[in-house]
């Protein structure tokens, strides 16, 4: 029972991260119809820029960033999160402006290759010695390691503790509030209407006076800020950070992308649903079957869902007109 | 117009007479390729040294992979990003057969026999077996393409590569000792112990320039003949417009699955060559998406469906990293910038949809089409 509950808590926390990243994939796909492979690198950028900033700020406050006991006041975490989001938003804007916009009318395959190029570029620039470096680092703690609730099940030898940490709650709360803001933005504001119109039909939207380029830029900025937040929250949960080009980051991005596809790519609510579905399958599969095959569960689920419902759980079927 | 009709019947008669002669002529490129491969095998290492000979071997294997992927991505217009998965699957199959087969036949996993000796025949047979196994996997992966289009298919192939990687990581340690192997029960051999995450070490190193360039010749000839055949034109019609192709009576699902199976077969054979190459330990990592991306990039840089273009791109992109080896840190940055720049400046790839010799012929054909009256 406690194992089940603990897995559930992890799955919810990880699921909200997947959902945040998946939102970026799904929005870009919805509007430009291509897989933005560089999105996972924005997550990495978010994680590593929060690390760089945190390890600069903490000594100024008289704290040792390498000492896990010294926890800064709570506003530091908020400042780091916001700074990372702003920075990644700017990077996302620049990438769209320089690499993707000139290819707006090119075949989608070319845009995809460009995205792969941008992804390689971000990874390897990040690995340079004077940027982030090519060695793993440990994220200094920005949140106190409080246990908000702890329950004990069983007696003596078989006793298991169930812990709800502050980190899990912060991840869930931040992710949920960001997603609610997104939901409001897309479905209840003028900008959201413009985004949906561009996604529906770019040319018609342009004829209706919607500034398509500005809407696309905004989408990239929005997706990148969400990715940065996800990167920050990820290293809060798992402080051991791998170097920017490590496969683990690409896999994180891939799973989030799978989440977007499973939910129905281009569908904002679907991305959130997909994120949680993927996290549940991964975490429970890892716990009850075998940890070694956790990536296999995710990709098998993807293939099964695509075969049964090719447009994803919430996606609308594509009709092709001649 | 009347004249043209009678002319075409005449042509047809001539063609049927020439058919047997054509079949023999068709073998000419293969014979020439095998001849060049033999010459390369005996003289190239002496001329340019072992290091560069190894790069030339790498280039050959990469060309086979890029040209075969081009059947799916370039000619049929599908988007597969799991080509390395097929390659690794074929490589592991071939390596398992030669490694344990050698132990079974000759009591040792080392090389057996010289040039074209019995060991090399076992090796090439195992490569073909690897190709067949990969082709079977290609059939399984191709089936969803009956229902999926475009990007979704891409994701399925990506997922396939990742699944191959993870499953190979979970395999057991290789059996080094011949006695242990002979005493091992079926329970120990199924699934085959192929080294898990560290890779399959100890595979006999049979791959040489002759076999690589022999396989390369066959791949290029098959791809080129396919492109000109009715089958290949059906594939190209699927690329250009699925609905129009369907209206013309092309069975689009069949063409897609066929393209997958053919590409996977050659990828599997190339994987066999790769697994037996000196200085290479095939590992589950090779099935990952990064390697698949490399081949996708080659097909795009070369030009959609252009066999010579893709070959050129494969040569450039394999040789370039070797040349940039001195500034290791910046190597991939240059590579990435080049890729982005290329897509911005020449989005159709180096050669577009043309073959390299079309560029010499073009002035002639443009004159022809510019003045149709002159012909009459």
Structure characterization notes:
The complex is a heterodimer of chains A (322) and B (376). Chain A has a domain of 216 residues. Chain A contains eleven helices and four strands; from the N terminus they run H-H-H-H-E-E-E-H-H-H-H-E-H-H-H. Chain A is mainly alpha-helical and 322 residues long. The mean pLDDT of chain A is 86. With 376 residues, chain B is an all-alpha fold. Chain B has a domain of 261 residues. Helices cover 74% and strands 0% of the residues of chain B. In chain B, helix 1 packs antiparallel against helix 11, helix 1 runs parallel beside helix 12 and helix 7 runs antiparallel to helix 10. The chains are: A mainly alpha (322), B mainly alpha (376). At the A-B interface, helix 4, helix 9 and helix 11 of A face helix 4, helix 11 and helix 13 of B.
Numbering strands along the chain, what is their spatial order in the largest sheet of chain A? 1-4
Question: Helical stretch count of chain A?
Answer: 11
> If helices are DSSP runs of H or I spanning 4 or more residues, what is the number of helices of chain B?
15
Shape estimate of chain A: globular
Largest interface (CB within 8 Å) is between: A-B, 47 and 40 residues
Provide the succession of SSEs of chain B: HHHHHHHHHHHHHHH
Q: Distance N terminus to C terminus of chain B?
A: 10 Å
* Low-confidence spans of chain B: 1-7, 365-376
What is the element layout, followed by pairings?
The complex is a heterodimer of chains A (322) and B (376).
Chain A (H helix, E strand, L loop, with lengths): L1 H31 L6 H22 L13 H27 L7 H20 L9 E2 L8 E7 L6 E6 H23 L1 H11 L1 H6 L4 H26 L2 E2 L5 H17 L4 H21 L5 H15 L14
Chain B lengths: L1 H74 L7 H24 L11 H25 L7 H20 L8 H6 L2 H4 L19 H20 L1 H11 L1 H6 L4 H24 L13 H14 L4 H17 L4 H18 L12 H13 L1 H4 L1
Helix pairs in contact in B: 1-7, 1-10, 1-11, 1-12, 2-3, 2-4, 2-10, 3-10, 7-8, 7-10, 8-10, 11-12
